[in-house]
Amino acid sequence: MSDLDAIVKEQAEIEIAQAVKTDDQTDEQFAERMNAARRDAFKILATINYADGSSLHTSEPNDVKLDDGGPLIKSFFVSNFTPYKSFTGAEPEHMFQLLLDFSQPPLLDASTLVSSPTLNTSNLTVRGRRTGWRTAIDDAVEKRIKKRRAIRQAFHSGFVYDFGLLLFGLPLAFYACWYLSQTVQGVFGGTNVVVISAAYVYIGFVSVWIYRILFSYTKWAFPLVELTDQATGPARHRAIWWTLMVLIFGRVLWATLGPYLPITHWLP
């Protein structure tokens, strides 16, 4: 906010220097009008929405803070549009709007297709004739972005679930059927082949559902956009996620490749 406010103040001096006094204005009236424009028109206005439903509207960067034990920031919106239009009655020629959406996808969302991309409204809009204005706004925002995680961004894209189903979900289902085959034969071995087949189908469906839950848990634990200053639940759950992944893939790899590894000859 401080950087953006400084850029808007710089734009104010450029436009005020080009302003022309009207015939019905005195020098004092014109100077007073320009000072009022510096104060009321050329400034930023931010809206911070918190997770508990409260909101904060301010033009002062020092008003935005995270209190220990207080509500987390859900979204952050800042622009120079509203102050300028409220003062002049016209839209600014040089304007920007920045929205940062820190919302997290639900663990299981029945209202959204599982193959759909993760919904996130974060965006930056910059408009203006002056190249220096557009470049300054872009740079002020870009330098505050700590990392661009290409893998995470791709994971939240559309049809990633379907690709993962072919690559991980179905192999997991086949592995579960193979791993539980002795149990199925021991329990249902004396029954009809249809019952045995149904047991394997059921195991496959349960395995796919486990993959579905893990997929949603991954999207929740690694949100598309997050504020690193906030100790959110997903940030704390990433250690749990990594533990689950190591256990699952370690168990599968050991069961399938373990008998062929030389190290097995040294084990009791």
Question: Which key features would you list for this structure?
Answer:
five-stranded antiparallel β-sheet; 11% strand; 268 residues; 52% helix; alpha+beta
Quick gist of this model?
By secondary structure, this protein is α+β, with helices and mostly antiparallel strands. The chain has nine helices and five strands, in the order H-H-E-E-E-H-E-E-H-H-H-H-H-H.
Question: How is the secondary structure organized here?
Answer:
Blueprint: H1 2-17, H2 27-41, E1 45-50, E2 55-58, E3 73-79, H3 81-88, E4 95-101, E5 123-127, H4 131-142, H5 150-155, H6 160-179, H7 181-188, H8 193-221, H9 233-257
Antiparallel strand pairs: 1-2, 1-3, 3-4, 4-5
Helix pairs in contact: 1-4, 6-8, 7-8, 8-9
Molecular structure report:
The mean pLDDT is 86. The protein has helices at 2-17, 27-41, 81-88, 131-142, 150-155, 160-179, 181-188, 193-221, 233-257, and strands at residues 45-50, 55-58, 73-79, 95-101, 123-127. It is an alpha+beta fold. It has a five-stranded antiparallel sheet with strand order 2-1-3-4-5. A hairpin with a 4-residue loop joins strand 1 and strand 2. Helix 1 runs antiparallel to helix 4, helix 6 (160-179) packs across helix 8 and helix 7 runs antiparallel to helix 8 (193-221).
